[in-house]
Automatic annotation (TrEMBL):
Free-text cofactor note: Binds 2 [2Fe-2S] clusters.
Top-rank lineage group of the source organism: Eukaryota
PROSITE patterns (alphabetical): 2FE2S_FER_1 (PS00197), 2FE2S_FER_2 (PS51085), FAD_PCMH (PS51387)
Binding sites annotated in the UniProt record for Mo-molybdopterin: Q736, F767, R880, G1045
Gene from which the chain derives: LOC106054344
Species assigned in the record: Biomphalaria glabrata
Record domain FAD-binding PCMH-type: where: 203-386
Name of this protein: Uncharacterized protein LOC106054344
SUPFAM superfamilies, A to Z: 2Fe-2S ferredoxin-like, CO dehydrogenase flavoprotein C-terminal domain-like, CO dehydrogenase ISP C-domain like, CO dehydrogenase molybdoprotein N-domain-like, FAD-binding/transporter-associated domain-like, Molybdenum cofactor-binding domain
InterPro entries found in the cross-reference section: 2Fe-2S-bd, 2Fe-2S-bd_dom_sf, 2Fe-2S_ferredoxin-like_sf, 2Fe-2S_ferredoxin-type, 2Fe2S_fd_BS, Ald_Oxase/Xan_DH_a/b, Ald_Oxase/Xan_DH_a/b_sf, Ald_Oxase/xanthine_DH-like
List of residues binding [2Fe-2S] cluster 2: C110, C113, C145, C147
Length: 1272
């Protein structure tokens, strides 16, 4: 039995939950907390964060912690006090200040992550009621957000800081003392440490046993009794987030260590060492090292800083340091920072055997030891009382927060600084990431014994020896390259040496010792001129659902109650690509208790094809493979079971054998080499590019590329289907295009569209990933429901979603550009190779892509050819700014090449080629309102461009190993999807005059419903509180197009305007008759007079909005660590032409979120695939990294252009949802400026290519570091 307190209510759980169940399973299944979300189920996304109260071993008093509930085993929560989002506040009884403030600051866009963000802050304030802004920023490393760009979230949370800026309104609050519930056992205030009352426990189920010893002696007895079985020692249960085979359900015995009293020992008073019990969490260690004043621990503050970067706060709060070591022992490829820290200071481990004997071991002995029947009891960390020890650890990772290190290093030297930094004895140099084990540079250590670091020859010889030792470095598809990790290790050693030899190192080299400085984030948001004439339209206003999102009351599809008789489906995916199916063996899956059926292609009653005829004619993409497998991740079957975990386990148990297995192509480079092409598209041309090119005074050729990007919508693909009593199906689905989803289901089941009703309320993010790819999900779910005549839910787990779903298309651009002496572009010729995946099915390649090829520049002669390439991967799909962001990056790269070739200022070259009013774009659009030239001038003036450039140059002159770069990037973004149509109705209720809007576009965080309500309120002159937007449905909103292309908010607002005008025209006679009565009386009179109070709108050709342009200018300043490739985006200034915004508050959030996603595309994100099978290796939060708050600009200033309404826009507005993605490449070009400064130090002055994403690895490699230049 498990007894736990959630939000003040006690729950007792018995055998109805398997022993491998997590706290999240319990909270969601019992519907105690649907605000606690599920996404990755591996501790990496942080949407499941709750607050737990436990005893703090340092103070022996209760303390509140944030925790990822998807990791915590339910059984280990016995006696705990837990608070979820529902325990804080709600819209009926009142919001908690954190919920209120996050809503006010517009920190909830799609809102899927919002409850977790609130709970993270709640936990922080519970444990630290007066945090600083820095402490708040550091605490927000657990929960991902794909929508906001984090700025609004961080501003909301930092408004609680004691040192908050005046611009952050709100101020600190008093959080009540931790005890808030009544303990069931004592009847007094609950402190949440009943679970730490030392008691033994045994629980069993068919294939799994739970053991809970209360002492070391009991534990040793259990180890002896069960040593012949497959057992797993459990504390925080976070290991399975890295290695799925460590899931508790894969073991026979689970032994919970949380009650073993000896494992909580903490002894700081010994003269020569401190003792840390095995159950101390990483957070406990961090706090201990931060707070200690023991002079014998010179490494304490540095250890605390290092631990802060290990995983996330929500993991560190529940994971113990010994578990981190045991994971390293079990999985040698696991990069254990804790193992590195302990080895650096020569710590020793106390390890108990099953017979109760306790011995001391070094870390190396521990890693070599068979730990079966053994357990770590404690660690002894030595004290170094002499003042001449220098100890430092370093780590470089793909991303600063919540990311495993490429390389982590530890150095321990005893040095006499007065004797030319004499090394007094053999030092310690430990490196994590060179090999599977902890690597000691023994030869280098031996050489440096009794050597003087002040001797240049000694330093160089040490680097020579270390470089040779690093040759054992291994490679792997998920690792950074061998060369980079070797170079990083050398750079870390150099950083250490610079930091040691203070006073000896020349001044311009000293900054090489430090990490890139990251002050507290700040910025400004300038809405420009807010037009009050059409209020509440065009006004900054909180999203109408904001408070419901921050309280967790909003229900996403997976949060909805199960339908009676609900079954659950999981998809069987192919594990290889480019093969044929020989046999599908389902017996193991069907033998699992609770499995109902396995469906295959032969069970499809209609067409085995999810490409609908109305859009794709006769093209075929099979719903379930009938024989040929194009890519790993292709759906082959569908398992239906009585619960979702059984369905997923059974899907993994289906065994497929393949025949005719051929090599796969998973990279665009290999596809080009193999000429794996689909038919080439006709070139887009203007003028005579070839002829002019041949006569151009200057010509350069080059290439660049962009990678794939996964959408990472935190709400995974989901569909719920229920058969109707007339042979049809009702479907709820997470779709951006309900009409497409309807047609897929109709086609698959072989029934008419009128028998398929699809509904979508809202999405937890979409970004294009749910335009097409939700159709097959709904098709498979409907197939199961139709076959079994029962409701079925198909909710993909993250790994399945990432293997099944295609990404943003990757591009490789070969180009040639001709130009004159001044830098005027004369001709451009481009061949764009694009990675289509296994089939030709990409929005990027349609007729609209030529709208963005020129960006903001007039190119008189151009030839742009697209060559689609076939790879054995899921079909690439649309993602926020599809085709446009990558095309703009390509043309920017071309102008960048020109400027470098001519040795001219990059901005001057761009200004010279800017579009002028009256010129015509490649698409034939006449630029009557061309604002870009004036906006560039305004940006130069606003930022003090000349002075900023001089400041950067001065910085670079004074710093060899840190470099800064400044770059200004103009943009013209064509908004061309104005042809989209949405079936829209405005309905007035006669009884009270309230209004419902029914439109066919999907709100997925962009605030489309809020803008529609504002517009309707303006037209009718009523309060926004009287208006509501209802669920989207193929019955009410039939034939609507997909939600995408940025312009849907405008189109819906236009439809609302037209519908309102129709109604106002009908109401005019009644208004006149009743002498302009109040709204309610007017509607009542109209109803009494038989007036139709419903108006529906569908645009005719002459009513559609013409295509138009949104202009912007971005300036980015960055600082680069030349030695590691790490960087900080120091400042971004962004001027955006928003027209007269429909809602400046929401549009500001859209801009920041899109820019952040662009930074991910161009600087960080990339998919990795198994080169042998084609399987996506980036299938979770461990191997795919999206930007987090530390990846934001340190200072982010955004300004909407003033006094520039769009003359052809809806209410004077321009779209903003996708346009800033391309500007996410501006920091990339700023980094290239920094790279140029770094390379010039080595005599390299010419042009060099860069390829997105420009990761820390690519940056460091491009710096051309050579350890022979590592001098003091």
């Amino acid at each position: 039995m498990v007894t736990l307190n959630v939000n003040g209510t006690w729950y007792t759980v018995g055998s109805e939950y398997p022993l491998s169940s997590t706290l999240l399973d319990f909270l969601r299944k019992e519907r105690i907390s649907t605000g606690t979300k599920s996404c990755c189920d591996e501790g990496g996304c942080g949407v499941c964060v709750v607050n737990i109260t436990m005893l703090d071993p340092l103070t022996n008093s209760p303390r509140a912690y944030s925790a990822v509930s998807c990791c915590l085993l339910l059984k280990s929560c016995d006696g705990m006090s837990i608070t979820t989002i529902e325990g804080l506040g709600n819209t009926r009884d009142g919001l908690h200040p954190i919920q209120e403030r996050l809503a006010i600051y517009d920190g909830a866009q799609c809102g899927f992550c919002s409850p977790a963000q609130v709970m993270n802050m709640y936990s922080l304030l519970k444990s630290n009621s007066q945090p600083s802004m820095k402490e708040i920023e550091d605490a927000f490393d657990a929960t991902l957000c794909r929508c906001t760009g984090y700025r609004s979230i961080m501003d909301a949370m930092k408004s609680f800081a004691v040192d908050a800026h005046d611009t952050l309104k709100g101020g600190p609050i008093d959080i009540e003392d931790v005890p808030t519930q009544i303990c069931k056992s004592t009847g007094k205030a609950c402190h949440g440490h009943c679970s730490q009352n030392k008691k033994s426990c045994v629980a069993k189920e068919d294939n799994l046993c739970w053991l809970q010893p209360a002492s070391l002696a009991e534990l040793c007895t259990l180890l002896d009794q069960h040593s012949h079985q497959k057992y797993w020692l459990v504390f925080g249960n976070t290991a399975f987030g890295v290695h799925k085979d460590l899931d508790p359900s894969n073991y026979e015995v689970l032994i919970n260590l949380r009650q073993v009293k000896e494992f909580y020992q903490l002894n700081l008073s010994q003269p020569d060492h401190i003792t840390l019990g095995a159950n101390l969490t990483l957070t406990c260690l961090k706090s201990l090292f931060e707070q200690t004043t023991d002079q014998g621990l010179p490494y304490a503050k540095m250890f605390a800083s290092h631990i802060k970067r290990v995983s996330s706060t929500g993991i560190r709060n529940i994971a113990c340091w010994a578990g981190n070591l045991m994971l390293k022992h079990a999985k040698r490829d696991f990069p254990s920072d804790i193992c590195l820290l302990l080895e650096t200071v020569d710590a020793k481990l106390s390890i108990a055997s099953k017979n109760g004997e306790v011995k001391l071991y070094t870390l190396q002995e521990f890693l070599a030891k068979d730990m079966a029947g053994h357990v770590i009891v404690s660690a002894q960390l030595p004290k170094y009382k002499a003042g001449n020890y220098v100890i430092r650890t370093l780590r470089t990772a793909y991303r600063y927060q919540q990311c495993q290190a490429h390389i982590a290093t530890g150095f321990k030297f005893e040095i006499d600084k007065k004797r030319e930094f004499l090394v007094l004895n053999k030092p310690s140099i430990v490196i994590q990431g060179i090999s599977s084990d902890l690597f000691h540079a023994h030869r280098t250590e031996t050489f440096l014994d009794k050597k003087k670091l002040g001797n240049a020859n000694v330093i160089q010889e040490a680097f020579n020896i270390l470089s040779q030792e690093l040759n054992i470095c291994s490679n792997g598809p998920l690792f950074a390259s061998r060369e980079y990790r070797q170079s990083l290790a050398l750079s870390h050693f150099y950083k250490f040496l610079i930091g040691v030899c203070v006073g000896l190192t020349r001044p311009r080299y000293t900054s090489g010792a430090t990490e890139v400085d990251r002050p507290v984030m700040s910025g400004s948001q300038d809405y420009g001129v807010v037009d009050m004439a059409r209020a509440p339209a065009n006004q900054p206003m909180m999203k109408v659902t904001a408070k419901h999102l921050t309280t967790g009351e909003i229900k996403f599809l997976d949060d909805q109650p199960d339908l009676p008789g609900m079954l659950y489906a999981a998809v069987v995916l192919s594990e290889v690509g480019n093969a044929s199916i020989k046999n599908i063996e389902t017996s193991r899956a069907l033998a699992l208790p609770g499995v109902v059926k396995v469906l295959q292609a032969g069970d499809i009653p209609g067409q085995n094809n999810w490409r609908v005829k109305s859009w794709y004619g006769g093209q075929i993409s099979e719903l379930l493979s009938s024989g040929k497998v194009e890519y790993a991740g292709q759906p082959i079957g569908l398992v239906i079971a009585e619960n979702p975990k059984t369905a997923l386990k059974a899907a993994q148990a289906v065994h497929i054998t393949y025949t005719d297995v051929k090599p796969v192509i998973v990279s665009l480079k290999d596809a080009i080499k193999a000429e794996s092409f689909f038919p080439k598209l006709d070139p887009v041309t203007r003028g005579d590019a070839q002829g002019v090119m041949s006569k151009a005074p200057h010509r350069v050729k080059g290439n660049t590329s962009t990678g794939e990007q996964y959408h990472f919508h935190l709400e995974n693909q989901t569909s719920v289907c229920a058969p109707t009593d007339t042979g049809g199906v009702d479907i709820q689905s997470t779709s951006q295009w309900i009409d497409f989803t309807q047609e897929v289901v109709s086609q698959v089941l072989g029934i008419s569209d009128c028998n398929v009703n699809v509904e979508t309320q809202r999405l937890g993010g979409g970004f294009g990933g749910k335009i097409w790819y939700n159709g097959p999900v709904a098709g498979m779910c409907a197939l199961a429901a139709h076959n079994l005549r029962r409701p079925v839910k198909l909710h993909m787990d993250l790994a399945t979603n990432m293997q099944y779903q295609g990404c943003r298309m990757g591009y490789f651009y070969d180009y040639e550009v001709g130009f004159d002496n001044d830098g005027k572009v004369l001709a451009v010729i481009v061949t764009a190779y694009c990675d289509c995946g296994s089939d030709f099915f990409a929005l990027d390649l349609n007729e609209h892509v030529f709208n963005w090829l020129e960006n903001a520049y007039f190119i008189p002669n151009i030839s742009w050819t697209v060559q689609p390439c076939k790879t054995h991967k899921p079909v690439s799909t649309a993602m926020r700014a599809p085709g446009s962001a990558t095309s703009i990056f390509a043309i920017e790269s071309i102008l960048d090449h020109m400027a470098t070739y001519l040795n001219k200022d990059h901005l001057e070259i761009r200004k010279m080629n800017l579009f002028q009013p009256g010129q015509v774009t490649l698409s034939g659009m006449v630029l009557e309102q061309c604002l870009i030239g004036d906006m560039v001038k305004q940006m130069e003036k606003d930022i003090g461009y000349v002075q900023r450039m001089q400041s950067v140059e001065e910085f670079n002159k004074n710093n060899r190993w840190k470099k800064r770069g400044l770059h200004v990037m103009p943009s013209r973004y064509a908004l061309v999807y104005t042809w989209l149509c949405f079936n829209t109705s405005v309905i007035i209720y006669h009884a009270d005059g309230s209004v419902v809007i029914a439109h066919g576009a999907i709100d997925m965080g962009q605030g489309i419903d809020t803008k529609a309500i504002q517009t309707c309120a303006h037209k009718f002159g009523i309060s926004v509180d009287k208006i509501k937007v209802v669920k989207k449905s193929t019955t009410i909103n039939a034939n609507s197009h997909f939600t995408g292309g940025s312009v849907c908010s405008e189109l819906i607002c236009l439809a609302v305007i037209k519908s309102c005008e129709t109604l106002l025209e009908r109401l005019a006679p009644i208004r006149k008759k009743l002498n302009n009565p109040p709204w309610n009386e007017l509607i009542a009179g109209a109803y009494a007079g038989g007036i139709n109070l419903t108006a529906q709108y569908w645009p005719s050709d002459n009513e559609k909005i013409p295509a138009y342009n949104a202009y912007s200018v971005c300036c980015s300043e960055v600082e680069l660590d030349v030695l590691t490739g790490e960087y900080n985006i120091v400042q971004v200034d962004y001027l955006y032409d928003c027209g007269t915004s429909l809602n400046p508050e929401l549009d500001m959030g859209q801009l920041e979120g899109a820019f952040n996603m662009g930074c991910g595309l161009f600087l960080l994100e990339s998919m990795k695939y198994d080169p042998k099978t084609g399987k996506a290796l980036s299938d979770g939060t461990w191997n795919y990294k999206v930007p987090m708050s530390r990846d934001l600009p340190t200072r982010f200033n955004v300004k909407f252009l003033r006094n520039a309404p769009n003359p052809i826009g809806v209410l004077g507005s321009k779209a903003v949802g996708e346009t800033p993605v391309a500007q996410g490449s501006c920091p990339l070009f700023a980094l290239k400026r920094a790279l140029e400064a770094a390379r010039s130090e080595t005599g390299q002055q010419g042009w060099f290519p860069i390829y997105a994403p420009l990761t820390v690895e690519k940056l460091q490699k491009s710096c051309l570091n050579d350890y022979r230049h590592f001098i003091l």
